[in-house]
Amino acid sequence: MNKKIAVIGAGNVGATTAQRLFEKNYSEIALIDIAEGLAEGKALDILQSGPILGLDNNIIGSTNYNITKDSDIVVITSGVARKPGMSRDDLLKINMNIVSEVTEKSLNQSPDALIIVVTNPLDAMAMKAYQVSGKKPNEVFGMAGVLDSARFTTFISKSENISVNSISANVLGGHGDTMVPLLNNSSIGGKSLNNSIEPNKLKSLVQRTKDGGAEIVNLLKTGSAFYAPSASIVKMVDAICSDSKTILPTTAYLSGEYGINDLYFGVSAKLGKSGIEEIIEYDLSEREKNDLIQSAEAVKETVDAMKKLS
Ligand code: APR
To answer: CB 3.0-4.6 Å disulfide test: which of 125, 126, 193, 305 passes with 264?
Structure first.
């Protein structure tokens, strides 16, 4: 694909994202990290896989943002990863400063780029990038829901022995313990989850989805998930670069949707070349509405905490 993607942060998520983009034939990838040599080394390593894969794509790494000039999309993964026992909110102070810095530096090189934020705590970091960027809300958004929905789909698929391709699982809300997996608007072969899976079993699948990030953090001991997160990022990048108008769970700026205002929050959104082109609102059950409001309150608390730290 003849697009330039800048990936900021060459840690697990950033480097794996760069590798996936390279292997999906994105012709120009720029990888940035603050750690001297890290982005250069990983980019060079990925580049040298080109002859083996038969790919002439270009990938370059640096600490210098010059290499990101005129990117179509900037993916922000730089930050500190969550460690066992550390809540997402513990990361707030360190990561808000990192996100502010890298947003400014990236936009200096690529003022027209769309921004996909991945750094946690995600909803608050998306808000920070939006505030720093001065861009339109549809041009700055976050990756969380594609991942959370993929986790929900995985657990349903394994539990019910049904292909992931026959499951449509939606997760809304904040990226964290308060996320809201939808039961009426998610389905197996078109039949709602509520009508497909026994309630107690469904409850445990929902809980495992909510704990999905922590489950992996606890297993890895150091660092957090990156294979499914990087695949989720690339799915969003693909939708934008191919202008496919795919509806994906996206952390978007809300202005009244679900009664929520001035907050980045997980909703379903149509993605195309101008970023978020439409936000889709579902008819929710009373319980889901209440859960969503609670989730929004949790996100608001983090955003308020961020304001105090600024
Ligand atoms: N500028 C550029 N890069 C930075 C900066 C900065 N100011 N600060 C930190 N980094 C880099 C680090 O040097 C590191 O290489 O960000 C990278 C983060 O990589 P990892 O620690 O491996 O974290 P990762 O697993 O990739 O997760 C990144 O994504 O899913 C979220 O919660 C996760 O917020 C975390 C982010």
So the answer is: 126
- Look up the pTM and report it: 0.97
Return residue ranges of the chain for CATH 3.90.110.10: 145-309
Q: Which atom of ligand 1 is nearest to the CA of 14?
A: 26
Q: Quick check: CB of 228 below 6 Å from ligand 1?
A: no
Question: Pick from 224, 216, 231: which is nearest to 121 by CA?
Answer: 224
Taking CA atoms only, the protein residue closest to ligand 1 atom 27 is 81
Residue 88 has pLDDT above 70, yes or no: no
Is 175 catalytic? The answer is: yes
Q: What whole-number percentage of the chain has pLDDT above 70?
A: 98
Q: Which two tokens stand for residue 50?
A: 């080109």
Pairing of β 275-280 and β 28-32: unpaired
33, 95, 119, best to mutate for ligand 1 pocket (most atoms within 8 Å of CB): 33
- Cβ–ligand 1 distance for 102 under 6 Å, the answer yes
User: Closest ligand 1 atom, CA of 223?
Assistant: 25
The CATH number of domain 145-309, selected from 3.40.50.720, 3.90.180.10, 3.90.110.10, 3.40.190.10: 3.90.110.10
Atom of ligand 1 nearest to the CA of 224: 25
Which pair of structure tokens corresponds to residue 183?
């039961």
Q: Is 4-142 a CATH 3.40.50.720 domain?
A: yes
- Condensed to tens digits (0 to 9), the pLDDT of residues 190-244 reads 999 999 999 999 999 999 999 999 999 999 988 899 999 999 999 999 999 999 9
- Rounded to whole angstroms, the Cα distance separating 243 from 266 reads 21
Instruction: Summarize pLDDT for 145-195 with one digit per residue, the tens.
Output: 999 999 999 999 999 999 999 999 999 999 988 999 999 999 999 999 999
Q: Would you mind telling me the total number of residues written for the chain in this entry?
A: 310
Which residue is it, tokens 């009373």? 286
